[in-house]
Amino acid sequence: HVVVGILINGFSNKGLMRDAVRFFLKAIDGGLEPNLVMFNTLIEGFCRVGKIEDALKIFKQIQANNLFPDVITYTAIMKAIADKKMSKMALNIFFQMIKQGFIPDAVSYCALIDGFCKQKKIADGYKVFDMMIRSGLLPDTATYNVLLNGLFREGRLEEVSQLFHQLSKRGAKVDVITYNTMINGYCCANKIGEALKFYEDMKAKRMEPSIVTLTILTDAFCKHRRMDEALQMFNSMLDNGPLPNVVTYSCLIDGYCKAQDIRSAYDLYDQMVEGTVSPNIITYSSLVHGFCREGRLDEASLVFQYALDRGLMPD
RNA sequence: CUAGAUGAUCAAGCUCU
Q1: What count of Cα atoms within 13 Å lies in the side-chain half-sphere of residue A284?
Q2: pLDDT category, A10, cuts 50, 70, 90?
Q3: Which residue's alpha carbon is at the shortest distance from the C1' of B7?
C-alpha cells in the first residue's frame, strides 16, 4: 500500500494526474484495496492544478469504497476553493466538516486564514484566528506567518512589527519562513534597508538563510536596478550555497532585461542551458519580453522557438 | 518497540482585476 501511495504521489506531484489515476486504477485491477491516503493524494493532486471538479469526483469515490474522508481530505479541498478566491465557500465546507464531527487542526485553520488574507480580507482572517483560539488550539508559527503576510499586504507595517516582537511571548518560534516573510514584506514595501536588517538579524541568530531568502533579496535588488548587488548575491550563492535555482536565475534574467542589459541576461540563460538548472516558461517569458521591448523581434521569436523545442508550453 | 506514502505559511515573468 505504501509503495503504491508513494508512486501515486510521485505522479501527482509532477502534475501528471492522468498517469496517477491510471496507475491507481491498474493497481486496483490487480487486487489492491485502495486506502484513504491514496484518495487524499489524488484529491490534493487535482486541487493543486485547480481541477476541483475532478477532486470532488474522487471525493465521492471515497464513500463508494466504504471509507470516510478525514481532516486532510477536507483541508486540501478547502484550500483549493480558497485559491479560487472563494474563501466564503471554503468556510462553509469547514463548518460542514465540523458538523460531521471532525475536529479541525491547526493546519486546516491556517489554510482558511491564509485564504482570507490573500484576498485582502484580513479582518475575516482574524475572525477565523479567534475561532481557532476559542477552540483551544495554540496558533503555531505557520499561522503567525500567514497573518504577518496578510498585514504586509495591507500595508499595516506597524502591526507587523508589533506582532513579530510578540511571537515568542505568544509561544510561537520564529522560523526561516517568518524571516523570509518579513524580508519579502519589507522589500515589497520598498524598504530594502529594513529587509536587510532582518537578513542580518537572522544570520546573527544562527538561522540559515534559505534559497528563498536569498532569492527574495536578489529579486529586490533587481527590481531596484541594483544589478551589482544582485549579481554579488548570486555569486555568493554559487560560492557558498545554497545554489541558485530556476527562480533565482529568472529574477536576474528579468532584471538584466529591464535594465536594458540583454547581453548579461542572455549570458545567464546560456549558463542555465549548459548547466544543471533548466529554464522554465517564465524564464523564457522574461527573455522574449526583453527582446520585444528593444524591438528585436527576430531574436524574440527565436528564443520563443527554443522554449517550444524544449517542450515547454507557452501559457 | 520502531520506521516508510496524503493537507497549511515565504521567492520570479506576462495578462486580467
Answers
A1: 22
A2: confident
A3: A72
